[in-house]
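Listing 4. Sequential folding, example run.
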Amino acid sequence: MLYRHAIVSLNTFVLFAASALAQDGEKITYEDHVRPLLENKCFSCHNPDKKKGDLDLTSMGGLITGGGGGAIVDAGNPDASRLWTTCAKKEEPFMPPEGTALDAKELAILAKWIAGGVLETKSSLAKKSTKPKVDMAVVVTSGKPEGPIAKPENVLLEPVVVTPRSTAVTAMAASPWTSLVAFAAPKQILLYDTDTKQLAGIFPYTEGYARTLSFSRNGSLLVMGGGRGGKLGHAIVWDVKTGKRVVEVGKEFDQVMSADISPDQKMVVIGSPSKKVKVYDTATGEELYTISKHTEWIMGTAFSPDGVLLASSDRNGNVMVWEASNGGEFYVLGQHKASSTDLAWRADSNILASSSRDGSVTLWEMTEGKQVASWAAHSSGTESVSFTPEGTLVTCGYSGSVRHWDIKGNKLADLPSQTDVATQIVALHDGKTYVVGNFAGDVKMYDLKTQRDLGSLSSNPPLIAQRIVEAEKRATELVASLPGQQEAAKKAEADLKSLDEALAKVRAEVAEQERRSKSYPAEIAAEEKELATAKAAITKATADKTARLAAIKAHEEKSTKLAALQKEQATAVAEAAKSVAAEKAVADANAALEAAKKELAAKADDAALVAKVKDLEGKLNAAKGEQQKLAPLKAKADQLTASATKAQAELGAAPAPVADLDKLMADNIAKVKTTTDSIAAKKAQLPKLPELVKAGPERIKGSESQVVKGREALAAAQFTAKSVAEEINLFQKLPTALKAAQFNVGVLAEKAALAKLESGFNDYTAAKKDNEDAKVSNAAKIDSSKKTIAETTAAIPLNEAALAKLKTELNGLEQAAAPSKGADATANTNLENHKKTLAAREAELAALVKVRDDGTAAAKKAVDDISKAIEPLKKKQAEVAAKLKGPAEQVASKQANLAKQEAACG
């Protein structure tokens, strides 16, 4: 049993050693597995001397660097690695292009190597995938999304590069909901706030050139398609607010010509010279489907605003529409006579506009897929088309012309032309402004209604330091110019008031001329009638005056006579007054007499009464005598009174003075003169009036034109004054903001470096853990091996004792066999059996010794191999510890510096 135990122990050791070697073999490395695999298939084309596709596969460094189309491996993700997808014929161009392709076993090794972290050697650290896995899905809305619209915040404002001269604007896009426009420049995408005309952000793009830009439906993302001709093509998605790249899709070997993102932000579409439309999942970066129906370069791709459809166009002029969810054919709309240059959807997703180098713009409706309008927009070729929020269109052409159209293709206006090829045009969210870029690199803003130049946006902005100097200088210049601009606005206002008054005067004059032309004949007739009436009135007034003067004279004569009669009457009346007294005296005397007679009658014999009566009779007679004496005077007075009364009655009322007749005559004489003059003037003017009336509209039009110019001048002056005031406010604050942005450049760089260090630190931490785990595992292997060696070494004396015992037994058998040689056949048989047993034992002993020797040698070799394996691990562990110490200190230092900088910024 002892020898069997030794054999089992040695076998266990051998199996353990083999298992350890097998575990080491599970690490697929470049040096051990991938390089030999590629050497037979790829090195003839992809070596340092030939470098086809700018790719060298003969070294790990060259493979990781990739070629002209970018990286070809994505650690941990074989499906996103072109090295594997092209070899597995999952993606064109299939590799190798000639000769035998990699078999399933070789492809499995390649995939396992990528999935394992693209190790160079067994001691290398596994790399991680650089592709982001994000979920950007949003709910699609027909109107403006809720909440604030994204604008760049604390992003890079320092240009990546400042070129000696501006270059052509190859791509442009406007945010659908805010004052933000983006356009391409060398090695960067520039974002401007169109309200302030200042840089809002710079998104670096150093890999190639942008060919297309578009904002997501909610304005939170910016999508770029581009690359390098014949080398690289992809689409990149930036977060507008942070300026960070969130998605990169596409692995083309030529520039991507168009790209867009679906309204729900789940898909990105690209079109390229491959003649294929490819759609990718933004969350995983995986290709969802490919459309291969186009026969030429894909020049345009655009999701409809509602996300239901996907439009595409190509260099043959074909325009097609697909189901966005799966790429199913929806409509093959038609074909332009030359390459399609641009696509634009109306906001309601019902109308698609396409432009072409043949100069046309065509509108397609999505109910039946029919053409609803098509017109020659620019004879030299239409380069770009854009819908305004109101549903009209703006276009630009190769000749630099820019135009505004209604939905039926009727030209609304010729907009200001560009000095070079107008390459891109976009209408802004406010519906009032558009931005156009040209081949010379000019980017200009205009008012769509007034066509006023609203300013330029630099496609080659200087460094922040220079912009600070320029801003301070500009602020000084603007402050100095403001009073003059304000005075110009006041003058323009006064001029407009004068022009308005002049227009009112002209309108009144023309209206009066029209009235006169129509009414003068009747007025002349009426005035002639009035003239005759006035003349008759003068004649009558003259006669009336003569009669009245005679009447006045007669009245004056009668008045004179009446006055004399009244004077005589007065004298007679005064004399007649005495007669009245005499009558009274007679009456009194008579009364007294009658009274006395009554008394006398009562007292007939009273002498006194008789005497009294007699006396009274005497007085009565005397009074009567006096009365009779005065009677003619009374009669005369009565006669004169009657004559005076009669004369007074005959005199009547005094005639009116002739002043009213004089006035009437004077008035009519004046009226005759004015009417005569008026008639003469009107008769003189009447022949001239038709010509004046005819010229009236032109006079009004000319005056109105002057008013319009005055209003435009006023609006321009007010706009300039307002703009200057706003610019002063902007440029006075701008240096501070730019200095903060300048500081922010360093902060962003530090943050990026910190993020890199943190990533490296995390990688080192993970590597350290892996090494510690490997150390523990290898230590366990060493302990197990030592245990096995110890058990094997301990078993050797037992095996040697068993061998000695067997030899002793052999000697005993030989001694026992000597006296029994003459025994019977049974003893001989037993002897033969013992010999056979001895021979078997000797063979077993020889085999056991060989196993012992082999096991001892294998154990020693395993110990040596394990020791050799442990030494690099110990060295690597020391290197990692040293590397970790530096990054850890750098991270701590950077975090402290960043905290100080953020505190300073705050």
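-- end of first protein; second protein begins --
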Amino acid sequence: MKAPLPGNEGARIEALRRYDILDTVPEQAFDDLTLLAAQICEAPVALISFVDARRQWFKSRVGFASAETSREGSFCSWAITQPDLFIVPDALQDERFATNHLVTGEPPIRFYAAMSLMTPEGHALGTICVIDHVARDLNARQQDALRALGRQTMTQLELRRQLAQPAVERLRETESKYKLLVEQASDGIHTYDFDGNFIDVNPKLCEMLGYTREELLRLNVKDLIPAEDLAVAPVRFGELRAGKTLLKERRLRRKNGTLLPVEISGRMLTDGVLQAIIRDITERKQVEEERTRLLHSLEEERARLASLFTQAPAFVVVLRGPEHIYEIVNPRYMQLIGFRDVLGKSVREALPELEGQGYFELLDEVFRTGKPHVGNEMPVLLQREPERQPEERFLDFVYQPMFDADGSVADIFVHGVDITDRKRAEEALRESEEWLRAIFEASRDGILVEDDERIVYVNKSYTSLFGYDTPEELIGKHVSTLISTQDAERMLEFGRRRARGEPVSSMYEFKGKRKDGSLIDIEGSVSAPTIAGQTYITTFVRDIAERKRAEEALRRAKDELEERVAERTAELSLTNVMLLEQIAERERIEAALSESEARFRGVFENTTIGLYRTTPDGRILLANPAVLRILRYTSFEELAACDLQRATHALGYSRQEFLERLEREGEIRDLEAAWRKADGSLAFVRESAKVVRGSDETVLYYEGTIEDITERKHAEEALAHVRNRLMTAQEDERRHLSRELHDEAGQSLMAIAMRLQRLENQLRAGQFDRFSAREEIVQLRSIVQATQRDLRRTAHALHPAALEYFGLAKALGGVIKEVCADGHVQCSVDVPEDFPRFTPAVECMIYRIVQEAVTNVLKHANASSISLSATVHDGVAAITLGDDGDGFDVSDAKAHGGFGLISMRERAEIIGARLDISSSGKTGTMIKLHVPLEVAGAEEFKHQDKASGSKGEQDENENSNRGRPRTGTPEHRLTAS
């Protein structure tokens, strides 16, 4: 940004010329003033500058190479517009100078302060200024000194003006002195014309360049400048002719071809001749380069040391003298003591809380003896905040004496580290390890850790599961010891692939081999945590023999039921699905627990199993978030307010009986109890607990786990209710079906058997007649077809029990989920819970249509996925079944369709519904059933449902026809161990 011109610019330029100061030789008086300015203001650069129309010329300079610079872009051009001090603390942040080449170049100007040189008439001739390469400011003392130096500079100018002799009287003397000065000058001086031809040279220039005077007079100034330098910076004869004084650094070629660095000051003399003063700056260049290098190195070292001191992870302090006065402290120490004002104070004054802790005496001992002191894990009480109690911290530190030149102790250097967090973390880690070890040992699941297929850890549950007495019997053995022969290679390969980082299922089943050689069904969950760069295989196992037996019993019951009544498969399968869902949910929770335990600290916060710890007198010491969630408490404090001494177990145990059994047996596993939630309702839990004793065998506390089984309890009650209802319905159906089959199908089958026996007798007796046999077969086919019609009629008459107990929506979902049970077909169900209810007959027809459609998909479509959805729009309920299997020709199927399609269409027509079927070999088959609500009696049913719902509690007692099992839980009190 260009500086504005002063309002009196013309008069100011004229006043500057009257002082006749421009382009004069250096004078000691002015040099003394710049030196004082640099020292007082502690700046590397100080200048006395005079600003004319196009340049600023320096009468005196300290730390600055050039004798003049252009006025445009100069700081002094701004300073002369103000009568008082002009200060720029940080030029890089000042929009007037941020892009100035003097700021962005090297070395940069960051700080600038100047005092205008003001004549008695009010004309600013220039400035006395100081410059620094870092952002800073002047204190009040330095500002006053700079003003005084400005006044002294003007006094020197006035004195110089008054002492000047008239030019005419001293002309000859001046010329004589000038000639003598030129001849004896230590700088090279020459005159030349506007074409650059030498007119005169002094001896020093000849000496500098290695030419004789005659040789130089035959040359042009351009002959001494390298061509590449002239191309970049040609000689500016035009500016010299205009009266401008030029100052420039160049390289001149000596006679021997070497290059000489010089500073050239050129101007035009009064007689129209150009004059140049050439100064050899070789030594100055070397000094400047060395100085720049040293300054750069020094700044780097200062920055490095400052960074180390400021950012050091340890605290650093220097204490001066026998009183231990704080002289230097770093931020880490201030953080340790609570950011108190300590500099200049003694340790006793700054940290009075150390009295009686022995630290004052240690400092005195180090200062007196000159021997260092090392403290490790030293406890100290510090008043880190004014209104709080002293806080205990732990320190590792060194008191190191620092000696004067005479060998006496002058200071104490303190260096140390606050290890409080580390020490507390170590204590917390030890407590956490003990806590997790207790959890592992209390876990019902067996836990095994292996390294390179060798057992390194097993808990008690694992040892007991496999029939061993102690974990030590298994430590160090190969993991195949616990795996059956037929599963060993498969399981070992799983572990090897997992150790290589390959994707392997984390859940699997295998046959475990117990100590006595017997085999057990095991379900395992595996993880591979990496600790300190070492990967360990961790396996959580549980005995699933009971579950296997239950599954096998369920399978047999299902097969038996399918053999007797095929139409009842959906209802029983739905029950099976519910059981499988319960088992799957249980497995998911247990798998989550196993994974959470493997993550150590995460087990406490994230496990779904409640973990607690209580004292013998009933105080709750610890409870994880799972306990709060199970009991519906919002905070641990709210839970801790419970009075456990007066709480009782709801399932037959008072707390006192529970505690007596716990102390007598040492451990209780899988006790089912009821705990009272915060809202007063009951949560059914499965509880395990153990006693933790101290070294003197006194009871320290009880700890244990609780698992929320409320939903399972309710489900079991509901399932038992439904199972009783189903059994009653099944017996009724069996009696009805027995009569139907005996009276109709049984007689037909007996007739078939008798005719087949007669054919067999004829064949044995050799009386076989092909014609009569053919007639017999035709009659048998007729009987079979009649029997089929009877069975079909009987099947149509049966009403699925799932519709009665669970409703249409869940019954349809049960049909689909039964297909998904073996995992070969992916299924999705989207039937809303509020889907309309129809009359029982209509719902039975809808159920049979969907059941028949699913059966056809499984038999013929070879599908990998099935979807079922239901919607209601404009008074019509739409039920859609789709698959991605093999399609078929719908037109051909209508003409020659099998019994399945015919049966589906007949049922749709009976209830006044429309059945649409679309099929393609590429996209599978889509079957949509449109059931008008009004025709199917849905509105009447909904009206009845609403009427029954208005009876309040009666709805619960009389709603069995809609499949809503009754639930009820007796009131119990909260109990905890």
